[in-house]
Structures are given as C-alpha cells and as structure tokens.
TrEMBL record:
Gene3D superfamilies on file: HAD superfamily/HAD-like, Putative phosphatase, domain 2
Segments crossing the lipid bilayer: none
Name of the protein this chain belongs to: HAD family phosphatase
Pfam families: HAD_2
Top-level taxon of the source organism: Bacteria
InterPro entries (UniProt xref): HAD-like_sf, HAD-SF_hydro_IA, HAD_2, HAD_sf, PGP-like_dom2
Originating species: Faecalibacterium prausnitzii
GO MF, one example: phosphatase activity
SUPFAM superfamilies: HAD-like
C-alpha cells in the first residue's frame, strides 16, 4: 500500500449516525418541548443552513428559545443521540490494518471535532486518528483548500497518493476535483446519490469488509 494519508468523514462513513443523529435531532428537540414534527420536516430542513434551520424550528413550533439558547439545547440533544451510535461493519478491523501498515489518519467532519472525538473514544477507535477537523462554514468540505490543508497536516503533499473516505456527494465532488483517491460508502441517507457516488469514486462499497486492498 503506497497511500499513507487517509482522510475520513465520520457520520455515515465510519458510524451509523446520519439517521440516528442528524435526522433524529430535530424530532428529539421538538419532543423535549412537547411539540410534534410536521410531515416533511427533513426535506424542509435539508434546504436550510444551520442558523436558518434553527430560526425555522423556533418560529414554526413556537419554541421557548432564542437563537442563543438554541445551540446549547441542540448540542445536548445531539450529544445524547450519539450515545446510541455504533461503528459500521468492518470499521474496527480496517482501521487496525491501516495503522499496522503505517498509515496516518484523521477525521474531517461537519460535526464538531470534540463531538467526533467523544463518540470515537466511546467506540474505542479515537486513538487511530492524529486529529479531528471541524469542516463547517468557510471551512466546509465544499472548499478544496480544506482537503489540501488536512492533507498537509497529515504530512502529505500529493492528493493522488492520499485517500478520502466519504458518503456525501458534495464532499466527494470536492475531493475528486482535488485529485484524491476516493472511497465512498453507501448510507441510507445518500441512496438517491448512489449513481453519482459510483461514478465519482475509485471504490464504492456497501460496508468496509468489501474494501479492495489490492488497489490501495
């Protein structure tokens, strides 16, 4: 294996958290305030940024929260939901093999770095990663410079000699634009994007036991 820098997304890539946490969090927040979500809430929120989504929930469901109150309340909901999250099949074995082969790894996620570290520590795999990078706002994975920055921190310089592991089509497009070797893994929240992910990826897998090590 000659690719010695691996950049991992967490939610939907290493963990089964896209449905449990990111679809479940708005519903759980509303439940805690005695509200019932309307049909189609996920589609509505999907089209919004984090602040716009917060404003929508506060306004539409008459939540007794200001925007300033909303973030810590939602973070607590998310933290609680992450306690139910597990690793996807084959993750533990895959990370152990990469470590044994001298690969340097990191997490680059939309989720806050400290939350990623907490989740992966509970699951017993945090020590495989050299650092946890929060990819939000101007530093989101829609921006190629984010992947270049992370690669440099891992000691790499050539994207073609490094690996990005994703489940989201927008981040996959960015990494492809940069020239990384791409592994995409199927997740139920990105099924609609499967044809595009298959087109972009060097390997498209349904779980980590399917990884073709001979191509790495």
């Amino acid at each position: 294996m000659h690719r010695k820098q691996w950049i991992f997304d967490m939610d939907g890539t290493l963990t089964d958290s896209m449905t449990v946490v990111w679809q479940g969090a708005p519903l759980e927040l509303l439940r805690r305030y005695g509200r019932t979500a309307r049909p189609g809430i996920h589609d509505v929120l999907l089209s919004m940024g984090m602040v716009e989504g917060a404003e929508y929930l506060i306004r539409t469901y008459d939540l007794p929260l200001t925007l300033r109150d909303y973030e810590p309340a939602m973070r607590q909901v998310i933290r609680d939901l992450y306690k139910k999250v597990e690793l996807k099949p084959g993750v533990r074995e895959m990370l152990a093999r990469l470590k044994a082969e001298g690969v340097r790894m990191c997490i680059c996620s939309n989720t806050w770095a400290e939350q990623c570290e907490e989740v992966l520590t509970r699951l017993g795999v945090a020590d495989y990663f050299e650092f946890f990078y929060t990819a939000q706002g101007a530093k989101s994975k829609a921006h190629p410079e984010v992947f270049h920055e992370v690669l440099e921190r891992l000691g790499g310089s050539e994207p073609a000699d490094a690996v990005v592991c994703e489940d989201a089509v927008y981040a996959t497009r960015t990494a492809r634009q940069c020239g990384f070797y791409l592994i995409d893994i199927e997740d139920e929240t990105s099924v609609a994007d499967k044809p595009e992910l298959q087109r972009l990826a060097d390997q498209y897998i349904t779980d980590w036991t399917q990884l073709d090590w001979t191509k790495l």
